[in-house]
Design a protein that fits this description.
The complex is a heterotrimer of chains A (455), B (288) and C (273). Chain B is mainly α and 288 residues long. Helices cover 69% and strands 1% of the residues of chain B. Chain B has helices spanning 5-33, 50-58, 60-92, 98-104, 107-110, 113-123, 130-136, 154-161, 165-177, 182-190, 195-206, 208-221, 227-232, 244-253, 258-283; strands at 36-37, 45-46. Chain B is flat, with a radius of gyration of 23 Å. Chain C has a single domain (51-272), classed as MetI-like (MetI-like fold), CATH 1.10.3720.10. The chains are: A alpha+beta (455), B mainly alpha (288), C mainly alpha (273).
Chain lengths: 455, 288, 273
């Protein structure tokens, strides 16, 4: 019997050693987490204990989740905004940045946190998150802050503020304006002998001429959120008249069974069946962007952030940026809307103020300037203009600003107005339309049913 | 014999604790909130059985998801296990290639989900994908079958993406083939039995337990797997490649309906229990 | 007839090797390509060996830190899982006792609970226990995730060991614990190695729960890194595949190492006769 205890003693001893090892590693891991947050501030958390010269309080810590990391188009501007904020306000506010690489993973995590009552102090309200926070009364409106800071109010502009106001409360501050038309390959257009269409009928006949010249007209996709396809769909509806325009400017539609929608769906169906690349069904953004950049398609509907790609030789052939033109949609329409932007999820007065400070910096003129220069993002305010350098580097951007200034009809993209589960549904049901298993009416009904799930 | 009761408890305790820690809370919340209406960001509200009635009687997507799931459970637990068993038996013959083959065949399972999804998308791309390029070699230069998005081929394509799972079956079986006494082989060979007879009538029956286990693991993996679907078809076209785990995810994160999502989860667990019990009975797992 | 069978056999094996090696080679080639090359032609050779993809991978994502974390989580997650489940699988395979069937069914439930449904409850549990954003939290959770698979594999394996082994050990005067650790374990290497492979792969490749249960880059693991290269409007697949290769290599090494254990068990014919 003693033998057993001796041997099992060895086992127990090694188990104990192992446990200690594990504990120390985890302690090590969490200590590191406490001592360096990912932002390079030089004010350590424990400074509240030491006596400082001035009556410096310890900086207020706020949590911020961001998906703008890695290869994300806005990753550079995000990093720069945070860096500059820390330089200026690092002593008062310590931003604990958590990186979530992937838009959908970001949305998932915010929803889990919301369901657990733990949302971060600063939240990006994209893709329906703002609705969740508003419904659950988990966010703090900006009205008081804006009233106390008229300068900030003017830096954002009435329109942008109104776009995010519900029932008189300003729930989020926009950080981006979307001004979307379409890019086209000037060379291909010349060879086909066409100009950007003024009417949708001309648009369709242009496609025929492009095909006759041996080109694939449109870079369309139905995968992910069917982005480029739906920009066109939105434009057909938005330029079809007063009713259509109103539809594309109203939040959360539940009835898609309108004549404008049906007509637009039929047109898009034709485009998907005849005027696009063979991999359009199920294609993601990377595929369509590549198709356009590699000269496999003549037209792609997309926003100004793509302009940087045209000069990128890993994505496009050298000199491709010279071949690209930008145009408004037929009927001189452009998608013009304000992104949802940032919301305050903080729960205590100090963290709310700190969160507001952070958001103020990001959405004020300085923040907008950084976003423009580093992310090709359309600023919300007209006061922010691109620098001369920028204009030299991206003449197409200047052109796109001109085009949008001259555009007459404005409406939102579908992603900005529909419920998130509808955004998720396009990729599943477009094939039904394209393979003629559903008519446009049935497709519209399907969308309405899905929208109705949101009570 | 010595009374081992104390040791039995001791040896079982860590597992029970781990189980309680990781799963118990989830099960309680899952079951409890399945009777509530719980929208993301709001508090759950008790609604009785209405989630279940909706699920069983009104929800067509649920029905389609269920049939797809059931079919995949069937396919995975038969076809993929069969392939895995055959391969294991072949490898056991230890012909010249066996060391290389047994190292290599597990590779697809080692590559992580994000890359695999992208891989399949590129392979099966209608335009430039390998599969279509290969088929075009045989004449039809216009061939542009959309494997993932065409109603006719979507289900098949997704089923194919799970083929690598057969490798897991193989390594499980290989591990146990060692348990078969050599003496059995000797006497069979001396009696003049052919390789096939030896394989079919000696090896495979002795692997009854592990094959049954593989059937359970393969089948139930279909009650969890959704990452490849998510990355390739997203459940489409329509609902053709939607399975219940995917539907649970969508209901929770797209429809923002945690309550309903959890009731589907409860259903899935019940379905799984039936399956597990059935297979345990059929294969008489647990007896020697 | 025999020749026909042999041909079938060789064809079958060849096909499987092709289908297994294919994806791996494709990822390897893709890791040296640019985005446009990958999306334009799936079978071409890379235009040039873009080692810059690999450099960029380490620049864009915190790969080295994630690497260290993955190793820790992988090793300890596997070890913890095998230890705990080894003990209970042995008991469940060997002994009859009251409530055994019920216990098996309850433990089997862990195989069936949908991952999505566990996201929020586990977040609550881990947070409440103070394990949020700690490697040890991930280790425990992963050990739990591998519970059903390891349980099934190990108990099935233990069933193949003849009872005579223990009986002779007891006759020699060995106690329960000693028998288990000194006698049963060494001959169960194939079973444990196989369970270890699957468990290690689980820890190494798991993405969803890392994201939910950690918040700082200090404690995150490799799968998260891959998503740094995929975003809605700007993905760099070349770099992503380079990172994938970096992630795959250790898991292949671990697999080969563990399979050696199984092979040695096979060759020795383990326990028999």
């Amino acid at each position: 019997m003693r033998k057993v205890f001796y041997k099992s003693g060895g086992t127990i001893a090694s188990a104990l050693m192992l446990t200690t090892l594990v504990m120390s590693i985890s302690a090590c891991g969490s200590n590191q987490a406490a001592n360096n947050s990912t932002t390079p501030t030089n004010s350590p958390v424990a400074s509240s204990k030491s006596d400082n010269h001035s009556a410096d309080q310890a900086p207020v810590k706020i949590k911020y989740l961001t998906y703008r990391v890695g290869t994300h188009a806005s990753a550079k501007l995000e990093a720069e905004q945070i860096r500059q904020f820390n330089e200026k306000y690092g002593k008062e506010v310590e931003v604990q940045v958590e990186e979530i690489p992937s838009d959908s993973a970001y949305e998932d995590k915010i929803k889990i946190l919301a369901a657990s009552g733990d949302i971060p102090d600063v939240v990006m309200g994209k893709n329906g998150i703002n609705d969740i926070l508003i419904k659950g009364n988990l966010a703090t409106p900006f009205n008081d802050y804006l009233d106390k800071d008229p300068e900030w109010k003017s830096e954002i502009g009435e329109e942008a503020i109104a776009a995010n106001t519900r029932d008189g409360k300003v729930w989020s501050i926009s950080d981006q304006k979307q001004n979307i038309g379409y890019f086209y390959n000037k060379e291909m257009f010349e060879k086909a002998g066409i100009q950007p269409a003024q009417t949708w009928d001309e648009f369709m006949s242009n496609n025929e001429k492009l095909k006759a010249a041996g080109f694939v007209p449109l870079a369309l996709m139905t995968g992910e959120n069917a982005w480029t396809t739906n920009l066109i769909l939105a434009s057909i509806v938005g330029t079809s008249g007063e009713a259509g325009n109103k539809f594309m400017n109203t939040l959360h539609p539940v009835d898609f069974n309108t004549p404008e929608m049906i007509d637009a769906l039929d047109k898009v169906k034709t485009m998907l069946q005849q005027d696009t690349t063979k991999d359009a069904l199920g294609a993601g953004y990377a595929n369509v962007a590549n198709n356009f950049c590699q000269g496999k398609a003549a037209i792609i509907a997309n926003g100004p952030w793509m302009i940087g790609d045209f000069s990128d030789t890993t994505k496009c052939a050298a000199g491709f940026d010279q071949k690209v033109g930008v145009s408004a949609f037929p009927g001189n329409g452009m998608i013009s809307s304000y992104e949802v932007g940032y919301m305050i999820g903080a729960k205590t007065p100090e963290t709310r103020d700190a969160a507001e400070k952070f958001i103020r910096f990001k959405t004020g003129l300085e923040g907008q300037r950084i976003a423009l220069e580093l992310g090709n993002v359309m600023p919300v305010s007209d006061q922010v203009q691109p620098s001369e350098e920028f204009k030299q580097k991206y003449p197409l951007f200047v052109e796109s600003i001109e085009v949008s200034n001259q555009s007459k009809i404005h409406y939102s993209a579908f992603d900005s107005i529909v419920y998130p589960n509808v955004t998720d549904a396009w990729k599943l049901w477009y094939p039904e339309l394209v393979f003629n298993k559903s008519t446009a009416e049935e497709f519209a009904k399907k969308l309405s049913d899905i929208a109705a799930k949101n009570k | 014999m010595v009374n081992h009761k104390g040791y039995i408890v001791l040896f079982l305790l860590p597992t029970i604790i781990l189980f309680a820690l990781v799963y118990a809370v989830s099960m309680v919340i899952l079951f409890g909130t399945s009777f509530t209406e719980w929208s993301t960001g709001l508090k759950p509200v008790f609604v009785g059985f209405s989630n279940y009635t909706r699920m069983l009687f009104e929800d067509t997507s649920f029905k389609e998801g269920f049939w797809n799931t059931a079919l995949w459970v069937l396919l995975q637990s038969t076809l993929h296990v069969l392939i895995g068993v055959v391969f294991a038996v072949i490898l056991n013959m230890r012909e010249f290639y066996w060391k290389f083959a047994r190292t290599v065949f597990m590779f697809p399972n080692i590559i992580s989900g994000a890359a695999v999804g992208m891989l399949f998308l590129c392979m099966l791309n209608p335009d430039f994908g390998v599969v279509n390029s290969f088929i075009r070699l045989f004449g039809n230069s216009d061939y542009a079958q959309n494997w993932f998005m065409d109603y006719a081929t979507a289900f098949l394509s997704v089923t194919m993406t799970w083929l690598p799972y057969a490798a897991v079956v193989t390594i499980l079986i290989l591990a146990e083939i060692a348990a078969i006494p050599d003496s059995l082989f000797e006497s069979a060979r001396i009696d003049g039995a052919s390789e096939i007879k030896i394989n079919l009538f000696i090896i495979i029956p002795m692997l009854r337990n592990i094959i049954g286990t593989c059937v359970i693991l393969a089948g139930t993996s279909m009650l969890q797997k959704m990452d490849i679907i998510m990355m390739t078809t997203g459940g489409g076209p329509g609902n053709t490649t939607m399975n219940l785990p995917m539907y649970i995810y969508k209901t929770a994160f797209m429809d923002n309906d945690f309550g309903y999502s959890n009731s589907i989860g409860v259903f899935l667990i019940c379905f799984g229990i039936v399956f597990v019990l059935l297979i345990r009975y059929l294969f008489r797992i647990g007896s020697q | 007839m025999k020749i026909a069978l042999s041909i079938c056999r060789y064809l079958f094996v060849f096909l499987i090797i092709l289908l297994s090696l294919g994806p791996f080679l494709w990822v390897l080639m893709a890791s040296f390509k640019t985005n446009s090359e990958i999306l334009s032609n799936s079978l071409s050779w890379p235009a040039s060996l873009r080692v810059s993809n690999y450099i960029k991978a380490f620049e864009i994502a915190p790969l080295s830190r994630f690497y260290a974390n993955s190793v820790i989580v992988g090793v300890f997650g596997t070890f913890l899982n095998l230890l705990i489940l080894g003990m209970s699988a042995y008991v469940l395979a060997r002994f009859q006792f009251r409530g055994k069937k019920l216990l098996m069914v309850v433990l089997s439930l862990s195989l069936l609970i949908p991952g999505t449904a566990m996201l929020q409850p586990l977040y609550l549990t881990v947070n409440t226990l103070g394990l949020y954003d700690r490697l040890i939290g991930l280790i425990i959770v992963y050990a739990g995730f591998g519970l059903p698979v390891s349980l099934y594999i190990l108990s099935s394996y233990f069933l193949t060991i003849p009872k005579e082994i223990e009986e002779s050990a007891y006759l020699d005067g060995a106690g329960f614990i000693r028998t288990f650790f000194k006698i049963i374990l060494p001959i169960s290497k194939p079973g444990f190695s196989t369970a270890a492979v699957l468990q290690f792969l689980l820890c190494w490749n798991e993405f969803q729960f890392v994201m939910i249960l950690t918040s700082g880059n200090q404690n995150r693991t490799l799968p998260l890194a891959l998503y740094y290269f995929k975003s809605q409007f700007a993905s760099d697949y070349g770099v992503m595949f380079a990172a994938t290769m970096v992630v795959i290599v250790p898991s292949i090494l671990v697999y080969i190492l563990l399979q050696r254990q199984v092979i040695s068990g096979l060759a020795a014919g383990a326990v028999k006769g």
